[in-house]
Amino acid sequence: MSTRFTVLTGGVGGAKLVDGLTRILPPHSLTAIVNTGDDFRHFGLPISPDIDTLLYTLSGQSNQELGWGREGETWNFMAVLRSLGEEDWFNLGDGDLALHILRGAALAAGDSLSVITARFAKAWGLPLSVLPMSDDSVATWVATDEGLLPFQRYFVEHRCAPKVQMVRFEGSAEAQPAPGVISAIMACEAVFIAPSNPWLSVDPLLSIAAIRTALEETRAPVVAVSPLITGKAVKGPTAKLMAELGLDVTNAAIAYHYGDWLDGLVVHSEDDAPDTLAIARTNTLMISPDDRERVARAAMDLAAQLTR
Ligand code: FO1
């Protein structure tokens, strides 16, 4: 059974919009389809950063200043790991480890990532459906002037410093959308694209052909919230990456990148806006819960004005 609204999301910025939507919508009327291109195995543990960031954000457990991981986390595991001389560029908090260990055990027992993710969301009483984009492996790789880097090495170890030439998604040609993903896009009243990095956090979803086709074919209006605020990203490498790809750091470039399946774009107050699609304006900086609700409402209102 699909829900009334659907949001495609990845990364920290995306989680904030999803939080805003859950605050203004009735319980269980929203489905979040989450990027898994950031996923990787570390010390044999399956890490799903964008899923976990969303679960923490929606359950009020997230570390607000870091944007990822848990509030009040402890780092005993990392201290012992370092004492053993192991690589410590990717921080695994003591509480965070529970999700990776349980996810690993469930995958080993034959459960799908979808089933495991739904189990976590239910355990924390989250008022929405959280679906990975796929239960198959899709891995984001970033071709840079320092070589081809797996996503987390680019993003965390190299702190997004290398100059990006191209982003690719290993496995997406074979990957199937997770159960419920296509129906969530086709049978809803509106689809939202969260203010995630289009090239790093949304493109992995679009690299799965059936997802892109569903966005082109759905009768629901599709509305994105721009990740840019006055030509800069709130957090993360969106603006830097756009410049490295030779693109203008504008909302027009973002709308063009998505394509003509996008019906509307919510932009930050007086920022530039293309005239090729419907525009809504609001302060899109999301810090407080009220901010998140404001931006969610702006996206909902824009979608309500649009019919395909
Ligand atoms: N981001 C960092 O910048 N440094 C880290 O050490 C780090 C660890 C980490 C552990 C679990 C997790 O779910 C996310 C983590 N992130 C970390 C964020 C991660 O790189 C995500 O891919 C970003 O949120 C971008 O989507």
Low-confidence regions: none
The CATH superfamily label reads CofD-like domains
Query: Could you say which structural class the secondary elements and strand pairing correspond to?
Result: alpha/beta
N to C succession of SSEs: EHEEEHHHHEEEHEHEHHEEEHHEEH
| Tally of discrete structural domains | 1
Number of strands: 14
- Please tell me what the overall shape is: globular
Name the CATH class: Alpha Beta
Describe the sheet with the most strands.
Answer: 7 strands, parallel
CATH overall fold name? Rossmann fold
CATH architecture: 3-Layer(aba) Sandwich
- The helicity comes to 25-40%
Q: Termini, distance in Å? A: 22 Å
Mean pLDDT: 97
Q: Which molecules are bound besides the chains?
A: ligand FO1
What is this entry, summarized?
With 308 residues, the protein is α/β, with parallel strands linked by helices. It has helices at residues 11-24, 49-58, 76-83, 96-108, 113-123, 151-157, 181-186, 198-206, 209-217, 238-244, 251-258, 289-305; strands at 5-9, 30-34, 40-42, 45-47, 129-132, 139-144, 147-150, 164-170, 190-193, 222-225, 228-229, 232-233, 264-268, 278-282.
